[in-house]
């Protein structure tokens, strides 16, 4: 009896050990969700259970590696479907149904990028194929592509005739996020066997921008949108200062390598912007939301395709026409200055629409001098409000077919109102006393005063693009309105009136100015056989009106 009892104990312990060992060996590799569910369904069938599913719901989803000590079919399903757009329903103890979650749309991301050759030239018609889910797309004329995918990790293959194919592993797609994948293919002249180069996803398109910069026929600096995102810049003015040798000032002008703004030309989408000030070139950079800028090109040398107005440099701001994904962006900013905000600000009577940069016609020239109201020369005290800036940007894109055909639209509205004060400690002109004529202390009254600044900039942009087969057509529109109303008031000492502290001469300068920029551009890019055809037509209107200017002494 004791020996029989001993054998029973040994047998039970052996079975427990074997069962525990087998339980620890239950594992599934990294695979597609369709393959995972098929494997679990086969094991469940041997156990008298069934799993019902539709293959189309499982495509495009990756099942991560799974190791568990449980032998329960339901546990395997629950762990495999975690953090995916799928779930299961238990009909009874032996039947399970795989279905989509109610919030499945939240578990879809987007893969987008640009395919170029080794010299940065876009490759139109390249194939972007996602392994395991049998899904892909083709690049457009600019080498760009966009492909919606479920959340997960994928292996992506890029192919183009005459170039070495590339497989990119571990491409992670997040829910409601866009993963950027830009690839440069290497050309091959002789192909004996298929060559596959495996690499990890690049961090950004900065390398592509540097490659394009190196291969352009002119000396240039190119700033890619990914570098702007990495640097967390909020405006185009801030982005320009990322380019070596460039300094942007508060007057919407730039200084390149010490050369002033008069010699630095501006272009928007390749079209030179006319300038209403012959002595200084300016452009309201803050009107362009950074999310609409594709890249910024700074040309430092002249070539035959550059405008004849080229002096020292040309800054070309290239905007997007087809967004990579749908988005809505709203920004608001405020700026306070302890020296001027909420302080008194002197000004002539303002128009009722000055805060949006629109003329209410109160500054129109009268029919005769007798009709000039006295209030036109009267000063009023206002409060200097905080400077404020708002912008709304909306992007929408839609895929029309599996061949990379897409349509997109971008809309943006920006508003900025700046109020500030500048202290003038001393200035000289004409018969005003010079600095050498003062013998008192530094705090002695000199030719001093204030400049009260009031500036409003408002504008909108509407871009749309259509990409189909080997064609791309874009329409870009921009309208900006700028109102400047600075008042300078100075109390000065005259050198021909001795000791005139009690009889100071006072001057003020006020030049209310309304400026308008309106530009439309229609361009196209087509591949006809082996030929590439580009064309564009544009219309630009620049208008500047100085109304009710005043100068007194």
Can you walk through the features of this model?
The chain has 553 residues and is mainly beta. Strands 24, 27, 28, 29, 30, 31, 32, 33, 34 and 35 form a 10-stranded antiparallel beta sheet that branches. The protein has a 5-stranded mixed beta sheet with strand order 10-9-12-13-16, with no helix packed on it. A 5-stranded mixed beta sheet has the order 17-22-23-20-21. Helix 2 (33-46) runs antiparallel to helix 4. The longest helix has 23 residues, at 2-24. It is elongated.
Give the SSE map.
Layout: H1 2-24, E1 27-28, E2 31-32, H2 33-46, E3 50-52, H3 55-58, E4 62-63, E5 66-67, H4 73-81, E6 86-92, E7 95-100, E8 108-117, E9 127-131, E10 135-138, E11 144-150, E12 152-159, E13 166-173, E14 178-180, E15 183-185, E16 197-199, H5 206-215, E17 220-224, H6 225-231, H7 236-240, E18 246-248, E19 254-256, E20 264-268, E21 271-272, E22 293-299, E23 313-319, E24 327-335, E25 344-347, E26 380-383, E27 387-399, E28 406-424, E29 448-468, E30 471-484, E31 487-492, E32 505-510, E33 513-528, E34 531-546, E35 550-552
Parallel strand pairs: 3-7, 8-14, 8-15, 13-16, 20-23
Antiparallel strand pairs: 1-5, 2-4, 6-7, 8-11, 9-10, 9-12, 12-13, 17-22, 18-19, 20-21, 22-23, 24-27, 25-26, 27-28, 28-29, 29-30, 29-31, 30-33, 31-32, 32-35, 33-34
